Amino acid sequence: MNRFTSFAIGVALAGALAGQALAETQVEIAAKLNDEGKELMYADKYAEAAKKFQEAVARVPEAKYFVNLCAARLQTGELDLALTACNAVDRNTPTADQKSRADKLIAKINEEAKKQNLELHAGGGGGGDPGGPTPPRDPAHPDQPDPSKQPLYAPAVGRPLETNLVREGRPEHRYTWTLGLDLFAGGGRIGQPDYYATTMTGFRIRADYMLSPRRRVGAQIYLQDSFFERDRLDPNMGGLTVGDFGVAIYKHLCLGTPRLCITPLGGLHVSALGPDSDSTFNYFAAGARGEVALALAFGSRFEHVLSAMVGANLYSSASTGDASDVSVADAGLDVGGVTGYVALGYTYRFNTPIGRRALVILE
After folding, report:
1. What is d(CA 16, CA 269) in angstroms, rounded to the nearest whole number?
2. Where are the domains of the chain?
3. DSSP reduced 3-state for 326
4. CA nearest to 318, candidates 267, 223, 244
5. In the chain, N or C: fewer CB atoms in 10 Å?
6. Which residue has the higher pLDDT, 167 or 36?
7. Which residues pair with 283 in a beta bridge?
8. Which fold has domain 171-350?
9. Domain over 2-124 is classified CATH 1.25.40.10
10. Span 246-265, mean pLDDT?
11. Which phi and psi angles does 74 have, rounded to 5°?
12. What pLDDT, on a 0 to 100 scale, did the predictor assign at position 323?
């Protein structure tokens, strides 16, 4: 009897362990399918992504998989099926964030249905099971159509969406535009020798626009101010303020980790120069900027970037405005110059032309 009891307990334990191993395997498979589906979504392959998410929810019906499936169905224009997936989120213990994302998707589904003049069916699945049993024919009304010969329900399908609603979900250096601020310090000479100080500090405000996400090539507009303070040790060397407005082209060259990139940049600018002996910017020059930045990105979609930069600015000889009483030569600006600098900067990246977040982040 004891041997039989021990054997039964062993069989029960083995069955429990096997069941647990199988459950873990299903969880792992579902997670893998979900990851594959997300990659397909980022690549604009929505129908293939929907199949992956469908397989995932069939194995493990978690709320996050239904959110992803809903987004994929919406992208393909399968509005009824998308609504079915979104409605299932609420029945599978969603987090507050998952429920919020599902609600946003449902609102988008209704918006698309109205825009395309499509009727959504109750429950998102057509108000019934299209594969269910056929109701019997009423013998009291032989003239009525035979229900078994009626066409099956066809889910509402509209046009695929033109934009990827989840593009920003993937962390990478593919953004639409940015805003940034740099602080720099350096030195050099502008104008004739011994006219102006040779050390400077300054700041730059810039905005970037990604021209080619695949090649990681973008354009930048920038406004920078450089301040050459009067040399305290040499009273003959005055101060100078230089304001540059320019455009530049850059390219991200990412290293072993996608978070770290080297970014060379080259640009041209026009400059307004104001000696401290003159209260206005009455002198103007042309110039160029070259720079190399080492950028570290962080955040869920690499939206925050810290940068360390080294660069140089070149300046032509100046011309004077009509309001100036001092000639370019007398101001010492009849020759150009060059400055070098080191800088630290912060950038925030946006993923749409107006800076709003994507409708849903895949999980």
Report:
1. 72
2. 2-124, 171-350
3. coil
4. 244
5. N
6. 36
7. 273, 320
8. Porin (2.40.160)
9. yes
10. 89
11. -65, -40
12. 58
